[in-house]
Amino acid sequence: MSRVNFFDSDYEPVSELIYAIVTARYNNKWVFVRHHDRVTPEITGGHIEPGEDPADTARRELAEETGAVEFTLDSVATYSVEEEGNTGFGRLYYAEIYRLDVISDTSEIAEVVFMDELTDNLTYPDIQLVFLQKVSEYLKERGSY
C-alpha cells in the first residue's frame, strides 16, 4: 500500500522532485486521460525532465495529454509517495482548462475522459484518489467547488 504525504506547495525536498501531476476541470467536468496500454482513466502528469521547472512539466504534460491550449495552473502542494521502502517527491497542480485542441496521433494517450463526478475506478486508485481529495479541499477553500 502506498502512503501519500503533503507539504506546502513551495516545499523543496532534499531529494529532487520527480513528478508533476495535474488534476484538471473543463466545462465543470473532471478531466482524466486513458493511456493506450491501460483500460482505466488516470490523472494527467509525468516525469520532470532534467533542468525542467515542475510547473513547465505540468503545462507540457497537460497540453500533450489533453490537448489543452488555454488554461490556468495553480500549484496545490508538494507531495511524497512512500511505497515498498522507497520515497518519491512531486508537485500537485490544479488546472482550469478553457480551450482544448486535438491530441497528437502519436500521443501515448488513447482518449481524454470527462466526468461529472470523481471516480475511484482509476489506474492508481490508492494514490490518485488522495490527490483528487487534496485538490477538492483546495477548491473548496477557494470557494471554487
Provide a descriptive summary of the structure in words.
The structure is a single chain. Helix content is 21%, strand content 44%. The chain has 145 residues and is an alpha+beta fold. The protein has helices spanning 54-66, 125-142, and strands spanning 3-7, 17-26, 29-35, 44-47, 68-83, 86-100, 109-115. The termini are far apart. The longest helix has 18 residues, at 125-142. The chain is built from 2 helices and 7 strands; from the N terminus they run E-E-E-E-H-E-E-E-H. The model has no long low-confidence stretch (mean pLDDT 93). Strands 1, 2, 3, 4, 5, 6 and 7 form a 7-stranded mixed β-sheet that branches. The chain has one domain (3-142): Alpha-Beta Complex (Nucleoside Triphosphate Pyrophosphohydrolase). The chain is globular, with a radius of gyration of 14 Å.
Q: Would you tell me the overall average pLDDT?
A: 93
CATH architecture: Alpha-Beta Complex
**How many runs of DSSP E, i.e. beta strands?**
7
Which of globular, elongated, flat, extended, rod-shaped describes the shape? globular
Largest sheet: 7 strands, mixed
